[in-house]
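Box S1 | Example of a co-folding query
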Amino acid sequence: MGSVGAKEVPVLLSPEGVRTDGRRVDELRPIRIEAGALKHADGSAYVEWGANKVMAAVYGPREVHPRHLQQNTKAVIQCKYNMAAFSVDERKRPGLDRRSQEISKVIAEALESVVFVEEFPRTSIDVYIEVLQANAGTRCAGLTAASVALADAGIPMVDLLPAVAVGKAGGALVLDLNKAEDNFGEADLPMAIVPQSGRLVLLQMEGHVTQEELARALEMGVQGTRQVYDKMRQALRDRYASAPSAEAAQ
Ligand code: CDP
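Box S1 (continued) | Returned holo structure for cytidine-5'-diphosphate
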């Protein structure tokens, strides 16, 4: 542990290239995805990603509320990302704040680029993301969950949309920042990449990286999102494999 003023700053990367949680620079945290976790939503998904726990529920296409948001040529995707009051160490004040609004907006825009919205004019596709436990990377876990929930709802999409954050911590580029790296690292770049085409549909950046590091970070994002994609597809396969017995049990 080094120290800066009163704050203890952990050593984010050992000389051997090991991170605070034992991972290598190009390793993801463990990810578990369950498609169709909720009974009453049209589509849903539950994601555990490291210590993050996120539920996504999808409704629609359905009537647009409020009415003035209706669009004649396409569906609107309305997304609400919310962090539960008990999801973080210090109780989060419930309700909408600027951060939740920003995350809701970027997730809705990313999803709009993969959903065939033109097929459902004058409707709304409503996406709810509830963060039950947060530990860095909740927007990526939330977007990943929302995308599986959309597929579970049977909404036509170009492809699933996996997301991951790449960052810089301890002087190196690292895949899937943990909380210490998010707090004390040099940069955080959450991104979402359409797997088949490689199209980047969400990229945000906090902190600084060089142009070369940015190019390398995007490559790491492609590798990382491919791994997330495999988990998403497996979750949907498991859902369909178990669907008849699940229905029977209800
Ligand atoms: O969660 P994500 O990395 O997408 O967004 P962030 O704004 O970079 O937040 C990083 C982390 O800070 C979150 O995942 C939470 O663990 C934490 N956080 C918090 O403790 N209290 C808040 N009001 C917001 C975020």
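The pocket of cytidine-5'-diphosphate is lined by residues 88, 92, 99, 134-139, 179, 182, 188, 190 (CB under 6 Å). The chain has one domain: 11-241.
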